[in-house]
From TrEMBL:
Membrane protein topology class: Single-pass type I membrane protein
Domain of life: Eukaryota
Species of provenance: Seriola dumerili (Greater amberjack)
Transmembrane segments: none
Amino acid composition bias (Polar residues), ranges on this chain: 287-301
GO molecular function: metal ion binding; tyrosinase activity
Residues covered by the Tyrosinase copper-binding domain: 179-196, 347-358
PROSITE patterns reported for this sequence: TYROSINASE_1, TYROSINASE_2
Metal-binding in keyword set: yes
Keywords on record: Melanin biosynthesis, Metal-binding
Location of the region described as Disordered in the Swiss-Prot/TrEMBL record: 279-301
Keyword DNA repair in record: no
Main subcellular localisation: membrane
Protein name: Tyrosinase-like
Amino acid sequence: LSPFSFCCNVEAQFPHACTTQEALDRKTCCPLWKDGSPCGQNSNRGICAAPAREALTPFDYRVDWPSAFYTYVCKCFDKYDGFECGVCLPGWKGPNCTEPHLVERKEITDMNDTERESFLSNLDHAKHNTSNRYMILTSNDTTVFSNFKFHSATVYDLYVWLHYYAAKKYADTDDDAAHRGPAFPFWHRVFLLFIEREIRLLTGKEDFYIPYWDWTRHANCNICTNDYFGAVDPDGLIDKASRFSKWRVRYHSSSFPHDPSPAPITRKPGMDPTADTLPNMGDVNDTLGTDNYDTTPYNSRSRNSFRSKLEGFDIPRDSRHLQSSMHNLVHDYLNGTMSHLPTAANDPLFMVHHSFVDKLLEEWLQCHKNASYPESGEIHKAQRGGAFMAPFFPLRTNDWYWDKDTLSLGYSYREHSIPHPGLNRGATRKAEGGEGRALYSFIFCDT
C-alpha cells in the first residue's frame, strides 16, 4: 500500500454547521439540535463542553484533534451520538435511542441477488448525492492554520476524504492517525460505522450494512466481476457494463472541487509480481495466533505483533516471498486505485476488504480478553490511547473502543455459508520453542 511522501495537501470532513466563520472565530462546534439548544442540551442529549486540549508544537493542525479548530464541542449523554448529539450510538435506534439495533454483516457472496443489488445501489446513491451534514476541508499546507477552505461533497466522497485526512503523514514523520500503529484496526472500525450511518441517514434504510469479503477463499479476486464491483480490461479500467466504471477518483487534486478530468477507478489484480496473490488461511492463522496486540516500537517495524501482522508489515516467514501480507497485501494485489493511500477508499472494494479485517480484529479480541491498549511514549501522540480519534465527532479516544465488542456497537458477523476449504480444526503446528498449539481458525480460540 503506497504511502504519502509528505504532509501537504489534505482534506477532511467537518460538520456543516461548524464551518462558518463565527464557529471558527469562537472555536465552538456545538450545533443546535432540533429543540433549539446546543447539542440538544434542553432535551438532556448532551452539553457543549471543552474537552479539547491546546495545540502543541511543532504545529500541524491535524494533531491533537480538534484543538486547532475548536475548544468547545458536543459531549453526548447516554446513548446519544453525533456532532450535535442528534443521532444514536451504534447499536441503538428510535427517537430517544432506547431501542436496540443489531445488523448482521454477511460475507458478500452470501448475499442473495436482491441484497447485493440493494447494497451496491446504495453505494452508488451515496457517490452521487451531496451530504447535508458535513463539508470537506481542503488545504495544501497543514502547518499554516489559515491555509484551508471548505467545500460540499457527496456522502461517499466525504468518506474518501475522511480516510485521506487521517492517513496523511504528519510533518517530518512516517506517522499518521490511522496506520502503522495501535489505532489502525480501531480507526477503521469507526470509519466503517461512520459510512454505514451516513448511508442509512441518506437513504432512510436503517438496516444498511457493509458486508465483508473473505479474501482467503480464492487466489484471485472473485468479486472483480460485473455482478459485484466490476470486471476490468487489460488496461485496468472497469468494464462499462458496471456502474463503477462511471465512478471517478477524488483525492488530493489541487484543482478540487473543480477537477476537469478526474481519473476513473483502476485495478490490475495480481499483475504485480511481488503481490500476485491474496492472503491465505495460513496467513490468517499466523496472525490470529499472535498473543501480543502490539510491540515496540509500535509502528511498521513492530514484530511479533498482532496489529502489525494484521496490517501486513510483519510478514510470515512462509508467505511466498511477497513484499507484504494480510491487509497490505490485498491493497497491493489489486494494483491500482486501492494500492495508494491517497486514493484507496475511492474503490468500493475498500470497505468490504476492511470489513473482513474488522472481523479478524473481533476474533482476536474475543480470544484475548485480558489484553489492553498499549501505553508507551514510543507511540505517536495521535495514536496513544488517550488521544482523540481524528477526525471524528463527537470526540472519542483511541482506547474507548477497546472493550466495546461488535454486539455492543450494533453488529455481528455471520460465518460464511460454505465451510472454508482450508479449515482444519484439529491440526497443530509447531510454535516457537517447539510447543504444539492449535491451528487458529476464524472462530476458535486457542484454549
